[in-house]
Amino acid sequence: MSYNLLKGKKGIIFGALDEKSIAWKVAMRAHEEGAEFVLTNAPIAMRMGEINKLAEACNAQVIPADATSVEDLENLFTKAQEILGGKIDFVLHSIGSSPNIRKGKSYGDLNYDWFLKTLDISAISFHKVMHVAEKQNAMNEWGSIVALSYIAAQRVFPDYTDMSHAKAVLESIARNYGYRLGKLNKVRVNTVSQSPTKTTAGTGVGGFDAFYDYADKMSPLGNASAESCADYCITLFSDLTRMVTMQNLMHDGGFSAMGISEDVVEMINKQS
User: Fold this and answer.
1) Binding site annotation covers 22?
2) pTM for the whole thing?
3) Which residues bind NAD(+) (predicted)?
4) What's the CATH fold of domain 10-271?
């Protein structure tokens, strides 16, 4: 159901890879709610995914950009404003990658060059996005910038290795840049800490199925789906959340508030 929450708003959506992607779901919902936007991803990700299919469905243009490159981001924001005919109202940062995880490195055996790459792609790119937006004065007043995070920023999930640090940095950047952009022109910046979600990137983490099932049993509402995360992001882009900024917002079915659940106790008792 559409409520025209984003009618007249213009945005940039980073990170849509395929139909499993949260960014893909956000783009579809933003289109339904009346937004115009451009889609962007790194050239290598675009070759792997189906972003052109999404662009056609949403009547959106695609601008390739490596989010770790300030030059690419400058081109992206310049072209986006030309295509959309004005400043930007919302940005979704849905970017995360760890070479260490992809190549099976354990936490005690990290490749430090790859670790730096994890931080650059998954967290520092968020700073670069907002740096470029600020320098170009590209955001409208009361705009909204959202990045996707995960509770491993605060808690230990052994198989999440260096991505846990990237998410912690991401959330810190949101707070610090949220203050800056809020003072400059009332732009709000938040992160959404989403349940484990069966995206292409998520399922690449070792032990994913186990902690997906564990989180589902721990959460009174169950795991939040990619579709429900998209709905939440839409509310954060809308004018209904104008006074929400610098927050890490838990979208996890209640997981983050739980100590233990009856379902988990039952599961442990069955195994003992």
Assistant:
1) yes
2) 0.96
3) 15, 21-22, 95, 167
4) Rossmann fold (3.40.50)
